[in-house]
Amino acid sequence: MNETISLIIPTYNERDNIIPLVERLSRALPSHSYEIVFIDDNSADGTAELAASLSDKYPVKVTVRKNKRGLASAVVDGLSQVSSDIIAVMDADLQHPPEVIPDLLKEIKSGADIVVASRYVEGGGCQGWSLTRR
Asked: How is residue 134 annotated by DSSP?
């Protein structure tokens, strides 16, 4: 299994979150090989351009989709862009904390086929909530 993790991040008008997200990913994964694959739905705020400008310093790839929209299809399109067997999907709005990725990777390396982070389970941040989404 390839030890690199590919992070698919769909974006639409997320310019203000790109730098903090990429920096947090870098800090969370100092001893891991990773790539960040932004799939942008032709944002008008310069999201794709800003993300692409980070590729000199960080392992960033950007694909701009001009005739497609939507989170699910962005993830599917991102799957064709990755170079790793380990794939994570994250939102760009900083609601998915990059700092949990090392723990998820430990589970994969321990033999799990799939790992899902959730704030709705014990230890996930919202104690006492049911497993159904509120």
From this structure: -
User: DSSP state, 45?
Assistant: T
> How far is Cα 34 from Cα 9, in angstroms, rounded to an integer?
13
Enumerate the β-bridge partners of residue 7.
Answer: 36, 88
Strands (E), the chain: 5-11, 34-40, 60-64, 86-89
Identify which of 73, 84, 79 has the alpha carbon closest to the alpha carbon of residue 6.
84
Residue 85 is encoded by which pair of tokens? Answer: 């067997």
Residue with the two structure tokens 């380990």: 86
Helix runs in 9-100, H state only: 15-28, 47-53, 71-79
Provide the whole-model pTM: 0.87
* The pLDDT of residue 129: 43
Summarised one tens digit per residue, pLDDT across range 63-98 is 999 988 888 999 999 999 999 999 999 999 999 999
- Integer Rg of the chain from CA: 15
